[in-house]
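Is this the right way to post structure tokens for a design question? Let me know if I should format differently. Anyway, here goes:
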């Protein structure tokens, strides 16, 4: 059974990604990488895995529909590969594996998907109901713009979701491990309803695949991701966390985020 690791990357460093590739380097595990157009394409290598850089390269802006377009691009490129991957795993270039290649291949059987769901906050509907005209503004860095856009939508009584009122909006982490059947549902869907939105990368897949909700209390555990939101937004694991990460290695977490020091990965897998 073959796996496609879908990587959303940016920046001028790729050392963490290279270590991730080193750990999962296997003839049955390939990497599809999208690297933000603003940065030089990195040089990463593997002995056994195939590495594909997807085109076209997009200018990714946090909180905008460029993230949805990037995920869709990665899914389509990998799905249409003649290798017919059974599982598709979305990570960032700052994620690290928590399974070695042998355990990874044994854990995933291609019969079920892993997607996180969390409780919708009172503002979640405004992410897709309102119209956000810009795909070039990082709303996290420009909260005033966000307030202006929301206020304008309220005054104009805009509700883009009215035509989809029978579709429940769901939310969760944007990282996932999906089986082939569920990926096909995504790439065959009309994603334009999620464009010109706010942080809808945390909405569109959960909304398209509501049947994957296992109603657990830990949305990151549902997605097999080890993420700490108590110590950061999210917390960036340090060398002092080696023992913590070793305890969850080769268990029920496929990846941890986020990591900036490749030596940490080496220590965890030492």
């Amino acid at each position: 059974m073959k796996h496609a690791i879908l990587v959303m990357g940016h920046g001028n460093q790729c050392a963490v990604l290279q270590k991730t590739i080193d750990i999962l380097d296997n003839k049955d595990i390939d990497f599809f990488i999208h690297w933000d157009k603003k940065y030089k394409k990195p040089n990463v290598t593997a002995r056994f895995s195939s590495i594909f850089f997807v085109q076209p390269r997009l200018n990714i802006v946090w909180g905008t529909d460029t993230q949805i377009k990037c995920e869709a691009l990665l899914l389509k490129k990998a799905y249409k590969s003649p290798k017919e991957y059974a599982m598709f795993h979305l990570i960032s270039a700052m994620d690290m594996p928590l399974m070695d290649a042998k355990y990874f291949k044994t854990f995933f059987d291609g019969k079920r998907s892993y997607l996180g769901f969390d409780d919708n906050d009172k503002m979640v509907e405004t992410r897709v109901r309102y119209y956000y005209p810009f795909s070039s503004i990082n709303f996290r860095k420009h909260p005033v713009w966000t307030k202006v856009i929301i206020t304008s939508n309220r005054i104009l009584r805009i509700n883009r979701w009215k035509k989809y009122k029978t579709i429940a909006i769901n939310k969760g982490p944007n990282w996932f491990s999906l089986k082939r059947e569920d990926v096909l549902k995504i790439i065959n869907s009309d994603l334009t309803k999620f464009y010109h939105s706010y942080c809808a990368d945390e909405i569109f897949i959960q909304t398209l695949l509501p049947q994957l909700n296992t109603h657990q209390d830990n949305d990151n555990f549902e997605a097999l991701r080890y993420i700490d939101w108590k110590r950061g937004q999210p917390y960036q694991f340090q060398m002092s966390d080696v023992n913590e990460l070793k305890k969850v290695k080769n268990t029920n977490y496929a990846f941890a985020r986020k990591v900036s020091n490749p030596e940490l990965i080496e220590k965890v897998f030492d």
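Format looks fine. Someone answered above. Worth noting: The CA atoms of residues 147 and 230 lie 27 Å apart. The chain has ten helices and nine strands.
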